[in-house]
Amino acid sequence: MGQFYKLVISLVLLASFATGNAQKQASIDSLLLELPKAKSDKQKVSILYELGSAYQKKKSYDPAIEYYSQAMKINEAAGNKKNIATLASNMGVCYYGKRDYNNALANYNRAASIYEELNNAKSQLVVYSNIATVYNEMGNQAKAVEFYDKSMALNESLGNQQNVATLAGNIGTVYRSQGNNQKATEYFQKALKINESLGNAKGAALNANNLGSIYFGQEDYNKAIEFYGKSQKAYEQSGNRESAARNLGNTGIAYLKIAQQAGSESEKQQALQQAIDKLSTAIEQVDGDVRQQYSQSLATAQGMASGKVYVPAAKRSTSDAVASSETSPRINPAQADISSEYARKQDSIRAESRNKELNLRKEMELQQLAFEYERKQSMAKTEEERQKLREEERMKREQIENDYRSLLEAASLQQKLAQSELEKKEALASAEIQKQKNIKNVAFGVVALILVVAFLVYRNFRNQRKAFRIIEEANRTILSEKQRSEALLLNILPQEVADELKSSGKSEARLYNEVSVLFTDFVNFTQTSEKLTPQELVNELHACFSAFDTIIERNGLEKIKTIGDAYMAVCGLPESSGEHAQRAVRAALEIRDFIYERQQHNGAFEVRIGINSGQVVAGIVGVKKFAYDIWGDAVNTAARMESSGEAGKVNISQGTYELVKEDFVCTARGKVNAKHKGEVDMYFVEYAKTSVANNVLAD
Questions:
Q1: Spatial CB neighbours of 365, under 8 Å, sequence gap ≥ 6
Q2: Which whole number is the average pLDDT over 13-35?
C-alpha cells in the first residue's frame, strides 16, 4: 500500500507544479501582449525587464537574456548607467545558471565597474560576492578569495555583520578546499563568533560543524567534540533535528577515535561509553548511508568494550548500567524495531521542519517582491503609474500566497497519507482480507482520478504553451515591422519631429532663431552630365551625396533635402547648438576636401558651397509623401552665398563670418552683387586655425 500513497503524493505535487507553471506562463503572455503597445522607451524597458525576470524565475535563461539584452540597448542609448548595471548583474545570474561562466563574469564585471563609478557600495558588495562564486565554480580559488574579501570589506564598512559572517564562511570553505586548514579555521572562527553574537543559530551550526570536521581531520578529537557539540546545540535551536543528530553521531565517532588511542583501560572505557551512547541515539534519527556508517562505528565500539556491551543511556537503568556479554551477546540497538509512537513523533517533527522551510521560502519571495516594487515605485512619475504598480504587486503577492498554500496542502496531504499508512500497518494483523481489497480498490480509484486530473492539467498546459508561442511569434513580427517603419521614418524626419508625429499625429512648425544653413551645388553640372551615361551619372551622384550624408551626420547637422545636384543641410535644429556656425563650416570644409580628393582620382564634379546664419521656420510640408523643410530669408541668403561662390570654395555671409572668425582663417571678398540681394559682404573660408574635435555629443 505504501507505493500507492507515494504515487498519489507524486501526482498531487505534479499537478501543483503544472498549475504553478501555467500561472507563471500566463503572466509572461500578458507582458508579451503589452510590449508592442508601449508608448515610450521607459514603458518598454519596464516590460522587457519584467519579461526577463519572469523567465529568470522559471530558469528559462535564454529568453531571459534576450529580453534583458533588448532593455540593455535602450538604456545604453539613453546613458542610464544604473539600469545598465542592474541588467548586467541579472544577465550574469542567467549565464551562471547556464554554467556559461565566462559570460557570467563579463556581465558581473561590467556591473561592478558601473557600481564603482556610481559609488553604490550596497550593489558592489552583491556583485563582488557573485563574481567570487563564479571563480570558485571555475576552480580559481585565489580570485574567489579576492572578491569575497572585497565584498566582506564593503559589508564591514556598512555594518552588515550577517553578510560578513556569511562571506567569512564562504572564504573558509574555499581555503578548506585548498587544504589550507589554518586560514579556513581563522575565517570559520570569525563567522562563528559573529553568528553567535547575532543569534543566528543556523549559521553558527554550519560554522561549528566545519570547525569540528577540520579538527577531526587533524586528529584533534577533543577540539572536534567541542565544535560538534556547539553545532548540535545550534541545529537543535534552529529546529533542524536531522543535522543535530548527525553532529551527535560525529561526536560519537570522535569518542571512538579517542578510545582507540587511549593510554589506560579506564580512559578507554569512558570514551567507549560516550561513543556508544551518542551513536545509539543518533542512529534512531538518521537513515540511509549515514545510518549504516554509524551502525558500523557502534558495532566497533561494542566490540572493543572488553567483553561488555553498553546499553544506550536512554534505555539504561541506574541499577543495571552495563549488561554482561553472556546475557546480551553483541546487542545492536540499530536493529531494534521502532515503535509506532516514535514513528508518529518523527513524522510530526519532519512536517514541522518542512512547514517552517516552506514558510521561510515564502517570506523570502515576498521580501524580494517588496524590494523589486519599492524600486519601481521610486521610478514612477505619476500617481497612475504608482497605482498600477501597487495593483501588480498585490496580484503577485496573491499568486505567491496561493502557490505556497498549494504546497502546504500537498505537504499536509502527504503527512495525512503517511499517518493513515501507519495506522493501517498497525491494524494489518487483525484486518480482514476483504477490507484490504476494498482499501486497494479505493487507492486505485484515487490514483486513476489523480491521473485523469494530472493528464487534463498537463494537456491544457501544453495547449496554452502552443497558443502562447504563436502569440509571442506574432508579437515579435509586429515589433520587428514597427522597428523597421520607425527606422524608415527617422530616415525622413529628425528624431524629435518623428516622435511628435507618432504621439500626436501632427507636427507644428517652429521658429529657430540661431541656425546655419549650408548649400552645395556642382559646377557646370549640365555640361558634365552630358559626358556621362545615365548609370555613370547616378553612380557619381550617389557616391558624392552618400559621403555628404556621413560628413553632415558626423558634424551634428540635419540633412534637409537634395534637389537635382543641389544639397541642403542645417545646423541648430531641431536641437539648438551654440556652435551651429562652426559645425556647418567644418562640414563644408570636409565636403570641399572630399570633392578635391575625388577629382584627383577622376571625379566628375567640382563643387560650390555657401553658408549663411540666421533665423528660419521649420516644419512638415504636405499630407502625402510629406517632407521636413525650412523657410526664411536666411535660407535664401545661404542659396545666394552658394551661387555667388567659386568652384572649390566655401563662401560665407557677414553674419556667419562674425560667428566663426575666431576659429577659421577667412579671406574677405568685399561686397559682391547677389541676385535679389544687392551688394553683400562675403568671405571665403580657407582652413581652421586649430584642429577641432568632431564630438557632437559634447553640447
A1: 400
A2: 67
C-alpha cell at 219: 586528529
Look at residue 658 and give its three-state secondary structure.
Answer: helix
pLDDT: which is higher, 427 or 647: 647
Q: Where are the beta strands (DSSP E) in 290-340?
A: 308-310, 322-324
Specify the residue for cell string 515564502: 362
Cβ atoms of 265 and 230 within 8 Å: the answer is no
From the CA atom positions of the chain, what is the Rg in Å?
Answer: 40
Q: How many angstroms separate the Cα of 681 from the Cα of each of 241, 612, 689?
A: 97, 12, 22
Q: HEC states along 134-159?
A: HHHHHCCHHHHHHHHHHHHHHHHHHC
User: Is 522 exposed, middle or buried (CB count within 10 Å of its CB: 0-12, 13-18, 19+)?
Assistant: buried
Say if CB 91 and CB 56 are below 8 A apart.
Answer: no
Orientation of helix 41-57 relative to helix 2-34, angle to 10°: 170
Q: What is the pLDDT of residue 161?
A: 92
At 485, list the grid cell: 517603419
Q: Grid cell 502557490 — which residue?
A: 403
Q: How far apart are CA 697 and CA 114, in angstroms?
A: 21
How does pLDDT run across 150-190, given as a tens digit for each residue?
A: 899 999 898 999 999 999 999 998 898 888 999 999 999 99
